[in-house]
Amino acid sequence: MRHQPGARATRARLIGAAIAGLTSMAALADSQYSAPVGKNYPLNLYWGDTHLHSRNSADAYSLGNMNLTPADAYRFARGQELTAHNGMRVRLRRPLDFLVVSDHAEYLGGYYRFGVGDPLVANTDAGRQWAAFIAQGNPEQMIATFTGSMDDPQTYPPFPSETRRLIWQDVAQTADDYNDPGRFTAFTGYEWTSMIDGNNLHRVVIYKDGADKAGRLPPFSGQDSLDPRDLWRALARYEAETGGEVIAIPHNGNLSNGMMFPAKSVDGRPLDRAYAQLRSRWEPIAEVTQVKGDSEAHPTLSPDDEFADFETWDWDNIGRNQAKEDWMLPHEYARGALKLGLGFEADLGVNPFKFGMIGSTDNHTSLATAAEDNYFGKFAESEPGLERLENAMAAGQLWENWKIVASGYAAVWARENTREELFAAMKRREVYATTGTRIAVRFFGGWDYDPGVIHQPAYLDIAYANGVPMGGDLTAAPQGAAPTFIAVAAKDPDWANLDRIQIVKGWLDSEGNLHEKVHDVALSDGREVNPESGKAPPVGTTVNVAEASYTNTIGAPMLAAVWTDPDFDPAERAFYYARVIEIPTPRWTAYDARYFNIDLPDHIPTTVQDRAYTSPIWYTP
Q: What is the pLDDT of residues 79-127, one digit of tens each?
């Protein structure tokens, strides 16, 4: 292991070669013959996608996914082979541990059922309206009923309650059919799709429960209300009526034009304590990276952070109808929202933006793929082929295909692979995001960690006993103490070495001003932070773009640090999270160019440094 400490960071003698093949950090917990008895903390790391669409989504179906069902999505995630829409046979190199098929609630399953003449849909007002559009030779008007329902739900007729109920029960039962406790978790879920004035307020709703509970009440859709407060109240009704459990996950916020983490609710009123309480109750985690760009940080908001400009989408909103303005950015990017949350907490007594971070794909192909070297796109039309890079803007596409991001996954620390355990981990925010690779990360905060704790074979016992994991809270700083953090990361065993571990701090000062600082706490290759600039030199690159290749001759297979905040003020609210960055590798565009023998124009990026973002740990005076 090669490591450069930040303030009070400690070198760790850990054997990189031995852990390069690990898929879980659990093996670092104890060197004894058997696992510790009576320990209640999670030892297992599970990988999944909480945001995937099948042909049951109206947009997925209308843009080419007419064949692959929710059942196909579960089968693919479990490691079975399928035929993609481009005719290629596809199978995940490594199966996932869990999946949420989150089809849009608006006209859920309707386009496919209408297409095959199912009377459950064809005999509704919506079905008759669609038939009229087809008869008039205006099929695009049928598609507009879906997008219109997200912005003006009164314009187009929704399905009657009985149609919604029967379709939803089929969705929930399919999840039950593919749920295999201990081996694979299939969650029931859907996407609530509010798009006010073209701005993305979408949420994925995830149920802990099986079809016996989840199937009782149909999804709350954008046709019911575009106000997230009404969604949260609907979730409360579900729990009250069924005894079940449910949460909502805000979308990647970068296409919301300032509405995802707002200063005002959708009716224009300033956020109040009631809003903060509802949001903090129902949205414990947020999606910060996916196919439509990365939303961890933005270079305008974080000009001193050389890694803030990663796969940035900041031109407009999801409706493509309003240009981006700088004032919107703090209300769209996770770091900006986390800082705003500190201010709201000081004013309201509740932090509405106290969320853990995950990634997911938002693919609409039924295929949960996020690997740079085998990426299968967002829509059926953006699956691998000459067209997805040669055509700058194919007919019907929302975005130029080269801008699409091979991202991301949700990583969950849990005791076992079941709905109950994974859901509990999400609620306590012991989760993190990656941009598509499987970096293993542990992050803890406490008041009295010894600098040598990461040398201990059973360091997890100490970490949990004397502090909190990612997603946790520190309060009431002991006199003269500053928080100390443990960060341990191991490379994806099938991918790139690590460049560095960083700890990102945000805080609210006594004057009410918000600040942030990024600390390099572990560096590979013997590099050191320049004391004058506060920056470390780049790790370098081994990427051969023409061959779409790289080598792990730079970087480290594992990095670890114990770091104490040198600028801690016990009177100031703060949060801390770890960011782990890989060495440069070819971007999916380079792999496509190599495979299809394409010469890419200079403006298309061909390298990437994939990364992980942990959920924060908060300090409250």
A: 999 999 999 999 999 999 999 999 999 999 999 999 999 999 999 999 9
Burial class (CB in 10 A: 0-12, 13-18, 19+), 44: middle
> d(Cα 214, Cα 184) in Å, to the nearest integer?
19
Q: Rg for the chain (alpha carbons), in Å?
A: 24
Rounded distance between C-alpha atoms, residue 561 and residue 57, angstroms: 44
Query: Residue 446: is the preceding peptide bond cis (ω within 30°)?
Result: no
Residues 544-557 have a mean pLDDT of 98
At 363, list the tokens. 């693919």
DSSP-derived pairing of the beta strands 585-586 and 431-434: unpaired
Q: What is the rounded distance in angstroms from the CA atom of residue 108 to the CA atom of residue 149?
A: 12
- Residue 294's Cβ-count burial label (10 Å; 0-12, 13-18, 19+) is buried
174 pLDDT higher than 80 = yes
**Hey, which residues does 499 pair with through a beta bridge?**
none
- Strand 607-608 versus strand 558-564 pairing type: unpaired
What is the rounded distance in angstroms from the CA atom of residue 362 to the CA atom of residue 358? 12
Tokens of 384: 């691998």
Above 90 in pLDDT, residue 340? yes
CB count in 10 Å sphere of residue 137: 8
**571, 510 Cβ separation under 8 angstroms:** yes
Burial class (CB within 10 angstroms; exposed 0-12, middle 13-18, buried 19+) of 269: exposed
